[in-house]
Design goal:
- The chain is of the alpha/beta class and about 325 residues long.
- It has one domain (about 25-315): Rossmann fold.
- It is built from eight helices and 14 strands.
- It has helices at about 1-25, 80-90, 115-140, 145, 160-175, 240-250, 275-285, 310-315; strands spanning about 25-35, 35-45, 50-55, 55, 60-65, 90-95, 155-160, 190-195, 195-200, 215-220, 230, 235-240, 255-260, 295.
- The chain is globular.
- The model is unreliable at about 1-20 (pLDDT under 50).
């Protein structure tokens, strides 16, 4: 009887793995850098799911994973239930690789090393942005084969991936050498950031063109990716609250921010639990193009709570947050 139970369990696990694998429609290498092949995975909408709203095509969600720039991958298991939510609601998902610019580094954010460490983080973000832009170029060059409209992409990321996503949007508005690879006039249709921030070495982030609508999720007790800001001279780490207060509000930009009192970096892994807010943002701000602005504090006991992860924990000990 015990043997049969084990066989039954094994069969169930195999079936589950097969169903999971069937969600992945294709893997494509889009670049090679530093001896590393960078690939993207495509997950198309589930059969019969609504791929339009009011006759308007739903966007593709381009996802950038988290892991402190030292770990993580485009197909981490914890993301799959969220990908399933998206594809069952008619969205295509593209999950991308990027180089882990801080892998092997042990940073020190103490008084005497913080500037050097901040520069290293900025370089890691820039590498990630460069890789994401290469993925966008690949999608644009292969739009017919992939069936993806490069003019209808929402970029989204968690933790380190959220930092890359926010910086990618900033650079499409304020061009840099990295934006040269993008199609002419390229813009994202929206940004969804799960515990993200912008690392800047030129002071407060400045957008030459109005940024696309942004949806920011952040715990107000986050000690890994700051909720507000940390700055030393022109070096700054600008979290969701600081971006809204000091940039978006002052310039009349469109934003939606969900603040989670008492939450730490756990919001970086709360994609499933925050789906209702994502759905409203995607349908209202992105698809219908309405200039909806929201600023809310959410107390949700169903969301997971992590230990209080700090930068020292991640980089001095060599541990990355486990989303």
């Amino acid at each position: 009887m015990i043997f049969m139970r084990r066989i039954t369990l094994l069969l169930l696990l195999l079936c589950s793995s097969t169903l999971m694998a069937q969600q992945l429609s294709g893997t494509y290498v889009f670049a090679e850098r530093d001896g590393q092949e960078l690939a993207l995975d495509v997950y198309y909408p589930a059969a019969g799911s609504p791929t339009t709203l009011d006759g308007i095509p739903k966007p593709t969600i381009l996802y950038v994973f988290g892991g402190g720039f030292i770990t993580g991958s485009r197909n981490d298991a914890y993301m799959m239930p969220w990908f399933k939510l998206l594809t069952e609601d008619g969205y295509t998902v593209v999950s991308v690789d990027y180089r882990l610019g801080l892998k092997g580094e042990k940073l020190d954010f103490g008084l005497f090393r913080i500037v050097d460490s901040a520069h290293k983080v900025k370089r890691a973000v820039d590498m990630g942005v460069e890789d994401v832009f290469s993925a966008v170029r690949y999608i644009a060059d292969n739009r017919e084969a992939l069936g993806i409209d490069p003019a209808n992409i929402v970029i989204s990321g968690s933790s380190a991936g959220a930092m890359i996503s926010l910086s990618s949007e900033l650079e499409t508005c304020t061009p840099t050498v990295r934006t040269a690879i993008l199609p002419d006039g390229f813009r994202f249709k929206g940004v969804m950031s799960f515990a993200g921030a912008i690392m800047s070495d030129t002071g407060l982030p400045h957008y030459e063109a109005e940024p696309t609508p942004q949806l920011l999720f952040h715990g107000d007790a986050d000690n890994a990716v700051t909720y507000d800001k940390i700055s030393v001279c022109k070096l700054g780490f600008f979290g969701s609250s600081a971006l809204v207060r000091d940039v978006f509000k002052k310039n009349g930009y469109i934003y939606n921010i969900c603040r989670y009192p008492g939450h730490t970096h756990d919001i970086a892994g709360s994609m499933e639990g925050t789906w209702p807010e994502q759905k409203r943002f995607l349908e209202t701000n992105v698809i219908r193009g309405l200039r909806r602005i929201s600023d809310c504090s959410i107390i949700d006991p169903t969301l997971p709570v992590w230990q209080n992860i700090t930068l020292d924990y991640i980089y001095k000990q060599g541990h990355a947050p486990q989303e």
